[in-house]
Every structure is written in structure tokens, then in C-alpha cells.
Amino acid sequence: MEYTVGQVAAVAGVTVRTLHHYDAIGLLSPSGRSAAGHRRYGDEDLDRLQRILFHRALGFALDEIAALLDDPDADPRAHLRRQHALLTDRIETLRRMADAVAAAMEAAQMGINLTPEEKFEVFEGYDPDQYADEARQRWGHTDAYRESQRRTASYTKADWQRLKEEFDALHARVAELLARGVPADAPEAMDAAEEHRRFIDGAHYPCDARMHTCLADMYVADPRFTATYEAIRPGLAQYLHDAIHANARRTE
How far is CA 108 from the centre of its chain? Predict the structure, then answer.
């Protein structure tokens, strides 16, 4: 069997740009070409891609992955043991924080009107006020910040719990699309991105397509955002970013 770059991207849950980059650096070069010169991937190429993505999910750099896959004397088990020890220490904390951090970072200016005890109960030990000063410095002058402060000032503990559960469910649906290999620019993924935008627009502050793409850019530029989404599913930060941008282009 031979597969086009688009088919491989869809099956593996990566972008075509990623596959082009892997080819350019010699990490994953397709074993064949069509008569027109287009990339064609075989089953062995897919096996190699699977190993690449496995190591990427564990945090290995691309040059480390190349060394592990191409050096017959490399000991991948030693690298895996080291990475496993680091991940074990982090994974439970990240799992608990995932939805709370997403909510807090996307609307760090929420101004939660709860007692400290209630905040910790709702956010499972994560303090959403951690980014309050940063939010005021970065966005305090904006209409979005002031509108979010106005809307959320009266939110109760039950309101925040409901919003957290809704956002949790939304992220789970997007992660499931990624797991199924649905391309980020497919209608189903763009519809989920639009639902993501409407959630922010309704719960926190006006969020049009332009604002939404700015948030998406933070998901991949700010390591705190990226870690939040990667804890839900590896590759989710980039996938959601791409789906949001595709949805914005659809509405232009």
C-alpha cells in the first residue's frame, strides 16, 4: 500500500507541514514518489512515523529521535527510563490541572468571586489567581478584560463548576477528533472550534474570529497553554490551534 502525504497526515493526526518538515530534516523521508513527483509513503514509513510520534509524546527532541531510530548502538531504553521518571512526577499534577489551567489562562482576568476554600475545591487544588497580576498587566486596558470582569463578578461556585464541566467536555470532544485522525480543517473540527469560540464569547468576553485566532496562537506560543492541552492529549495544542485558524478562514 502507498499513501499520499494528506492521507498519512489524517491518519496520524499531524499536519502536512509537519510531514514536510520531517522529510526536509531527514527524519522521515517517504520511500516512494508518484510519476508527478509527489510523496508516497509505504507501510514501513508509517511504522517509523508511529515510533517518531511515540517519542515526541514522551518529550524527545527531533534530533534525539533521529539518533535513537538510526543509530544501531543507541540504547532507547535508557532514554525511555529517564523520560518515564520525569513524566511520572508530572502526569498526575498535569491531569488534575488540565481543565482548570485552560479556563484560568483563557480568561485569566475572570475575577472569581469565591472564598479561597471554594476556589481550591472547584479547581482541585489549582489556584486560578496565579495569573491575575499578569492578566491585569497584559489585558487590563482592553474592553475584553473589563467586560469579563463585569460578567464574572456575580458568578457563583456552581456557575464556575458548570463552566468547568462544559469546557472539560468540549476539550474531550476535540481530543477525540484528533484521536480519530479527523483533519483540523475538516468541517467537524471547525465546528468544534466554533463551539470553543462561542463558549468563550458567552461565558467570559466578546470573542470574534480574530480574537479567537489570537488565543489559538497563545496555545502554541506559551508553554503553559501548550502543557495544558498536551496533558489532555499529545498534539492537542497544535490541533486546536489549526482548527481555530481554519474556522476563522471559513468565516472570512
Answer: 18
